[in-house]
Amino acid sequence: MTTALPSTPTPDDAALWHQDRLYLTDQRVLPERAEFLGYDQAADVADAIRAMVVRGAPAIGVAAAYGVVLAGRGAYAAAEEGWKAAIEADLERLVASRPTAVNLFWAIRRMRGRIAQLDTSDPTAALLAEAIAIHEEDRAANRRMGELGAELIGGPTEVITHCNAGAMATGGYGTALGVVRSAFAAGKISRVYADETRPWMQGARLTAWELMHDGIPVTLQADCAAASLMAGGTVGWVIVGSDRIAANGDVANKIGTYGLAVMARHHGIKVMVAAPTSTVDMEVASGAEIPIEERDPAELLGCGGRRIAPEACEARNPVFDVTPAELVDAIVTERGVVLNPTLEKMRALMA
Ligand code: MRU
């Protein structure tokens, strides 16, 4: 958002527009260093999304929207009244940056809608207003999801979360961690177990950092420690975000979410997915149609900058999986809650 630039980013500062530049908190170096990187070119924003400077579905959408502002400004500087043709290459670069989080495509489609309404004069101010609206709406949606999600949680309980669906992953406040923030404030959550989330360690690096910043009790655990914790009987909910929700309620989220949901069902623990409607993709019938990003195996073959697997070892690195709708107890959006999601209920939500 257009605002003063803090000297050190806080968890709510994933993306900021300040004095004609986009600033992104470099999420790759948190929590060791909290620092902004500045962007003037859309192509660099596309690279930042690909390289995980900014990550998390809604935050990717917000960053891409600001990327379109930079694209429009650059296209007008280069081609003046021909800017609508000149902007296309940058829009395609942004679209190609990551494949799974539908918020990216949603945000660019919305920015395209605004472009279609404009004449051939300088589009920068109009595009910036639209990007700021996307950013502010996401923040407001997260606040609303926080309230709705907290209402579902009965009493003081412990919860597990996976990856980072916090303020850093969004326009601010967070989706899953927005629910955690609201429920903790209401006395309904006593502790959060954060899965470390191999290989990018979003749980260890970002979720733990955000929750500690808020004074919410958090315990980090290895991804594979969730089952034994669940067996102990203290966990009432698994609360996660999503990168794309299909029309039938199947949920794509960080790799490992599916396994967590299977284990939760076995132990009688409920699964809540908190995601804005910009994450719902009614054009994909089921999770089987959601493109799952495969990243460089090198991310898995090493750890902490050091190679851990034998030379020439093969590795697969899908970074998302699909949790079938029947394992999801509640999808929480800013428009309302869908319990036990089905195609009919998702259609009613999105109508
Ligand atoms: O690869 P990432 O870090 O972009 O993956 C992020 C997630 O999987 C989040 O859980 C999801 O985007 C929801 S963020 C509110």
TrEMBL record:
The keyword Isomerase applies. It is an enzyme of class 5 (isomerase). InterPro entries: IF-2B-related, IF-M1Pi, IF_2B-like_C, Initiation_fac_2B_a/b/d, M1Pi_N, NagB/RpiA_transferase-like. It catalyses: 5-(methylsulfanyl)-alpha-D-ribose 1-phosphate = 5-(methylsulfanyl)-D-ribulose 1-phosphate; 5-deoxy-alpha-D-ribose 1-phosphate = 5-deoxy-D-ribulose 1-phosphate. One of its GO terms (molecular function) is S-methyl-5-thioribose-1-phosphate isomerase activity. Substrate binds at residues 55-57, 98, 202, 253-254. The active site is at 243 (proton donor). GO terms for biological process: L-methionine salvage from methylthioadenosine. The keyword Cell inner membrane does not apply. Its EC number is 5.3.1.23. Pathway: Amino-acid biosynthesis; L-methionine biosynthesis via salvage pathway; L-methionine from S-methyl-5-thio-alpha-D-ribose 1-phosphate: step 1/6. HAMAP family: Salvage_MtnA. Catalyzes the interconversion of methylthioribose-1-phosphate (MTR-1-P) into methylthioribulose-1-phosphate (MTRu-1-P). Also catalyzes the interconversion of 5-deoxyribose 1-phosphate and 5-deoxyribulose 1-phosphate. Part of a bifunctional DHAP-shunt salvage pathway for SAM by-products. NCBIfam families: eIF-2B_rel, PRK05720.1, salvage_mtnA. Belongs to the EIF-2B alpha/beta/delta subunits family. MtnA subfamily. This is Methylthioribose-1-phosphate isomerase. It comes from Thiorhodococcus minor. The lineage of its organism: Bacteria, Pseudomonadati, Pseudomonadota, Gammaproteobacteria, Chromatiales.
